[in-house]
């Protein structure tokens, strides 16, 4: 199955169907500056090896989504995208990762944030452990508005890898 076919099938199954009367997909590419102010209290709270700086995500989320959207991060890691979405008003959030420790880490970060900002509504957040290629019964059909994620880029590399190893890695990643 080609990547595009797998993605088309995923969207047909899980995304909200297009409604020509109400949906407007006009959205120019994001063209603002993306900057991070360094390691904030939130960034430092919980260690995760590939965590994205939260400020980088916030403007992209605001640009590419609409208030009230149901957002899914299938490679949630320590939950930066979900916690950022929560802080700007999204409540219908789903997150998964194939690594159970990552899902636990996301839960901890959401709990930590909720302790600091008690008015945040975390009641509709759903987290689960799953391989992105097989999400099982964890997502309702035709329920998602947006997939916002930071893809897995493979294990750390040294620069000494042989061509064959890199090709194998590339072909594994192209299945995601
Ligand atoms: C770049 S990290 C995401 C980091 C996250 N944005 C954060 O800020 O913590 C990519 C994540 O993809 C997960 N992952 C790798 N292969 C996966 C797969 N087949 N299905 C689901 N998750 C996978 C890894 O466990 C890792 O947590």
Description:
The chain has 176 residues and is an alpha/beta fold. The protein contains six helices and four strands. Strands 3-2-1-4 form a four-stranded parallel β-sheet, covered by helices on one side. Strand 1 (71-73), helix 4 (80-87) and strand 2 form a beta-alpha-beta unit. The longest helix has 17 residues, at 100-116. It is globular, with a radius of gyration of 17 Å. The N and C termini lie close together (12 Å). Residues 48, 50-52, 74-75, 77-78, 80-81, 97-99, 102, 131-133, 150, 152, 176 line the site of S-adenosylmethionine.
Quick overview:
This protein has 176 residues and is an alpha/beta fold. The chain contains six helices and four strands. It has a single domain, classed as Rossmann fold (3-Layer(aba) Sandwich), CATH 3.40.50.
Topology readout:
Elements: H1 3-14, H2 41-45, H3 54-64, E1 71-73, H4 80-87, E2 93-97, H5 100-116, E3 126-129, E4 146-147, H6 163-173
Parallel strand pairs: 1-2, 1-4, 2-3
Helix pairs in contact: 3-4
């Amino acid at each position: 199955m080609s990547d595009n076919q797998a993605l088309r099938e995923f969207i047909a199954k899980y995304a909200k169907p297009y409604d020509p009367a109400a949906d407007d997909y006009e959205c120019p590419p994001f063209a603002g500056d993306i900057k991070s102010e360094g390691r904030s209290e939130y960034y430092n709270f919980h260690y995760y090896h590939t965590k994205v700086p939260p400020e980088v995500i916030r403007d992209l989320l605001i640009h590419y989504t609409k208030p009230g959207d149901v957002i899914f991060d299938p490679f949630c890691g320590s939950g930066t995208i979900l916690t950022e979405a929560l802080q700007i008003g999204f409540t219908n959030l789903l997150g998964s990762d194939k690594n159970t420790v990552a899902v636990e880490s996301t839960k901890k970060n959401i709990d930590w944030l909720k302790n600091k900002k008690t008015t945040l509504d975390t009641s509709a957040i759903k987290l689960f452990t799953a391989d992105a290629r097989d999400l099982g019964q964890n997502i309702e059909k035709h329920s998602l508005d947006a997939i916002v994620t930071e893809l897995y880029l493979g294990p750390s590399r040294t620069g000494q890898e042989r061509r064959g190893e890199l090709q194998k890695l590339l072909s594994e990643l192209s299945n995601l």
